[in-house]
Design a protein that fits this description.
The structure is a single chain. Helices cover 25% and strands 27% of the residues. By secondary structure, the protein is α+β, with helices and mostly antiparallel strands. The strands form 3 sheets. A 6-stranded mixed sheet has the order 4-3-5-12-7-10. The longest helix has 19 residues.
Length: 225
């Protein structure tokens, strides 16, 4: 999806990067002990993420760093991290703090909607675009500024979950999620997110699906029928 923008500065294996190992250990912990709320579909998704992550960690995946990149919304990142340290998701936030300066923040869209470019960005941690390379699982972070509206969209062949690390986010005007909460979107489910008035929102996300879908998912705001 973003291979044309890759500017590799180093290539190694995950075993060479202790701080990154702990990041994924904390991801696994959230997806193992986080609640599915009694929902079998969500419980199955949580297990799928864990199993895919276990499989990737066992093969000691390649690590290929891009040049770190900051976008306007990253002005809120320090506040989002500080707030996350006060929440039950703090173990992951502390681990992320050790690698945050190595992240490449992106938009992922060829055309950004007016105003969104200053209020949104994502950073992939594991996936086809690295830095920890995987064809079977995408893990990453999404950062929203306060008063952000992330327009309605859906994903073709991708099951998506978010775990709120700090701040708050509403899902399609139906529910509000705070730190520790999980949002789940099955393939093709249209969803729209908004954030609170005063604090930024930091989300950890996971995408699962077929290798081809993970590698070639087109990111736009059109709804897949």
């Amino acid at each position: 999806m973003l291979d044309s923008h890759r500017r590799s500065t180093s290539m190694s294996r995950l075993s060479d990067h202790v701080d990154w190992q702990y990041v994924f250990r904390e991801y696994w912990h959230l997806y193992r002990f986080g609640s599915a709320g009694g929902n079998r579909v969500i419980r199955s998704h949580l297990k799928d993420v864990r199993n895919r992550l276990n499989a990737e960690l066992e093969i000691n995946p390649e690590v290929t760093f891009d040049q770190p990149n900051s976008l306007p919304v990253c002005a809120w990142l320090g506040r989002a991290m500080d707030q996350g340290l006060n929440e039950r998701t703090a173990p992951l936030v502390r681990s992320l703090a050790r690698v945050i300066d190595q992240l490449t923040w992106r938009y992922g869209y060829e055309r950004m909607r007016k105003g969104l470019a200053r209020k949104y960005a994502y950073a992939e941690l594991m996936g086809p675009n690295g830095p920890v390379v995987s064809k079977k699982l995408i893990l990453g972070l999404v950062l929203f500024a306060p008063r952000c509206t992330y327009p309605e969209h859906s994903h073709d062949g991708i099951s998506e979950s978010y775990i709120c690390l700090s701040g708050s986010v509403s899902d399609s005007n139906y529910s509000v999620f705070t730190p520790g909460s999980l949002l789940f979107n099955p393939p093709k489910r249209a969803h729209r997110m908004t954030t609170g008035d005063f604090e930024p929102t930091l989300l950890a996300y996971a995408w699962t699906g077929d290798e081809d879908k993970l590698a070639h998912q087109k990111m736009d705001f059109s709804i897949k029928k």
